[in-house]
Fold each of these.
Amino acid sequence: MPISTPARISFPLDIPQVDVLATKHTQDGKFIITVESRRDTTQCGVCKQEIACNYGHGQTVRLRHLPILGQETTIEIRPRRAQCPTCLHHPTTTQTLKWYDQRSPHTKAYDRYLMKLLIGSTVADVSLKENLGYDAVVGALERQVEEEVNWEQVQNLGSIGIDEVAHKKGRQSYRAVLTARQDDGTVLILAVLKDRKKRR
Ligand SMILES: [Zn+2]
C-alpha cells in the first residue's frame, strides 16, 4: 500500500436496528451516512396494532447526529411506511424508530450531546460552535424538558450538578439542567426542568 494512503478505521454505528447503505465524506468536511431500518413492522396510528411495512418509503429525513472526529455528521433515512389492513379506509402510517423523534431534526443522541455542551455555556455559544441555528439548540432543550429519568442508567448520585441555561434571547427565562457525574467520568443528563426563575 502506498505510504500516502491515509490510515482507515471502521467502527460500529451506535444506532439500533439499521443497516448502513452508504457513507459519504463531503468536500466541506461533513459526513453523511445513509441508513435503512431493519424493522419490518410498525404500530398502526389508529388501532395501535403491529402491522407490516408494505407501503414503500416516505421522504428522506435528515438528522444531525454526533460528530465523527469533530466533523458534522448527518444521518439520512427514508422511513418505511405501512398500511393497516383492518382499519376503515386502510390508513397509512410512517414507521417510528426509538433513536429519533419524527418532529425533530436531530437524533436523540445528538440532543443529549447538545445538553452536555450547554452545561456552563449559553445557547448562543453552542449554536455557534455546532454551526446550528439558535432555535435548533432551543428545540433540543425543549425536547428534554420533563423527559422521564431512566434511573436504571444512573449508578451514582454522588455528584449532582444544576446548570441554568437562558433559553430565550434577552429574557430572564431559564431552564435548569440536572446532571449526575458517573464513576467512569461520563455525565448523565437527569432532567431539564421548566421555567426556573433567576434569583436576584
Ligand atoms: Zn389500524
Amino acid sequence: MCIDTICPMKAFLIDQAIEEENFCNFESEREALRRHIKQKNHIVLYGPRNFGKTSLVKNIIGKEFKQTHPESFVFFADLIEVRSMEMLVSRLRAAFENSFRHSFPAKNLIQKTKRLLSALRPEINIDPLTGQPSLSITLSEQKHQDTIVFIFEMIQDLAKKMPSLIIIDEFQDIAIIPEAQAHFRAAFEITKDTPIILLGSKNHILSQIFANPNAPLASWGQDISMGKIPYTDYHLYIQERFSQNKNTISLETATELQDLVKRVPESINTLCQHIHINHENTDITLTIVNTALQTLLESKTSRFESYLAHFSDSEQKILIEISRIRIIEKPQSIAFIKKTGMTNKSVSRIIKKLWDNGVITKQKEGYELTDPLLEHYIRLYRI
Ligand SMILES: Nc1ncnc2c1ncn2[C@@H]1O[C@H](COP(=O)(O)OP(=O)(O)OP(=O)(O)O)[C@@H](O)[C@H]1O
Ligand SMILES: [Mg+2]
C-alpha cells in the first residue's frame, strides 16, 4: 500500500484542496494564469463552488512558481469568514508569517518575525552571499503596523528582492467590512509590480467588489473564469482510478454520472469514491451508478439532516421548492411564491440570504442548489 506522503496515490479525494496527481484538467486556465503571472498582472479568478479554484491556484500554480523560482516568496491568505477590520488584519498577519515560514524555512526566523511584528517594523534582507533571509529592525516611523498597508509593505520589501506572488482566497468576504476595500486598494498600489491572484467561492459578491464603478477596487485586474471539465477528460480520470479495483466505465455512463451531479468535481469524486470502494472487477453501468447514489445519500442522512436543521422552516421550504423544480429562473414569479405560501418580500429576502451564503447559486438559467448531492437528498427524502 502506498502512503500518500511517500508515494502520491491517485484517488478520489474530497473536502480538501488537492495536489497535481489528483487534479483533473483545467489546462487552459493553468496556461492563462502562468502567462498573467509572467506579465505580473493582477487577476480575479472566478469559478463555481467546489470546482478546484483553491487547488489550482495554491497547490498547482503556487507550487509551480516556487519550483520555477527556488528563491521566491509566495504570500497566501485565506479570508474566509473575516468579520471585522481587526480580524482581517490579524488573518493577513498570520498569513504573512505562515507564507514567510513556507518560503524560507530558516530556523527561528519566523518566531523572531512574529515577536517583532506587533511592535516593530522588521525589514527583511537577503544575504547576497548565502541567499539566506535575515531581519533588520527599525521602529516604524508612523505607528501603523496594525494596518493592511503595513503588511503589504513587508511583502513589497521581499518582492523587491525576489520573484513574488500574492494569492488571496475567499476575497469576497471582505465585502462585509465597509472600509476594507479602500485599504486593499492602497495595499495593492504598493505591490503593483507583483502578480496578484484574488479568488473566492461566491462569484456574485466577488464580482460586485470590482464591478461597481464607485467602489475602491472598480475595474481592478483581469478576469479568468473556470469552466466545466470536458466529459472525456473526467471519464479518463475516473477510469484511471476505477481500474485500481479492476472496474471499468464507458464514456457514455461516465457522462451520465457527471450530469447526475451537475459536473461538480467534488460531487463526482464523492459518488465515484462510493462506487470505487464497493465494487471490484465490475463494468459500472448506469443502474450501478443510480443505486450507488441512493446508498450514498442514505449514508449521509444524518449529515444532511443536521445541515438542514440550521435553516428556518421558511428557508427549508424554499430549498425544497427549488430542489423539486431543480432550477428556478424567477423566484419572484407568482407561481413560485404561491407554492411557498410566503410573501414576495420573504421569498426575496430568503433567496438573497441563501445566495449570499453560497447555499444556492445563480446560473444563466436561474437559481439552483449549490450542492447537487443535497438537491438529490431533498428530492429523495423531503418531497
Ligand atoms: N480539477 C479537479 N480534479 C479533481 N477533483 C477536483 C478538481 N477540482 C476540484 N475537485 C474536487 O473538489 C474539491 C474541492 O477542491 P477546492 O477546494 O480546490 O475547490 P474550490 O473551488 O476552491 O472550492 P470552494 O468553492 O469551496 O472554495 C476537491 O477535494 C476535489 O474533490
Ligand atoms: Mg476554495
